[in-house]
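Working notes for the structural subgroup meeting. M.R. asked for a predicted model of this chain before we commit to crystallization trials. I am recording the input and output together here so anyone reviewing the notebook later can reproduce the run.

Input as submitted:
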Amino acid sequence: MTTIKTTGFAGDTLEIIAFRLHDQEFCVKTTTIREIRGWAPSTPIPHSPPEVIGVMNLRGTVIPIIDLAHKLGMKTTVANERSAIVVAEVHNMVVGLVVDRVSDILTIGADQIQPVPEVTTSFDKVYAEGIIAHENGMICFLNLSRMFKEREIDELAA
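Returned structure, recorded in token form:
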């Protein structure tokens, strides 16, 4: 049996939150997530980056709302009543990530994370920590710290 060495994961298990974007399953570590909210309209910001839908008030703090599908190079998400906003903390800043729906919260073994294959994909491979083969299909494990560089987060906050 081949053991796949993963880096950056402490312990034998990892808690992840899985969500869907355009019939594809993605996940992030639960430690980066602050809360999950139902869809609510945001206020557009003129001249913002194309993946920024707008901003919303989260208990007195204004946070940017990101179209995660667009950020991953996919077709823009058309939010509806089933959509969700996954509120995450990245580089000490809170952002809202629009997803089609949250699927599950799972505990997986760190050894279940496999490297992303060396093929052309619909998203920048640097954003992916790996792929998890799950009973319901494949889940792309995203790395929010690499997806949102510190400089980029500073620009979102401006």
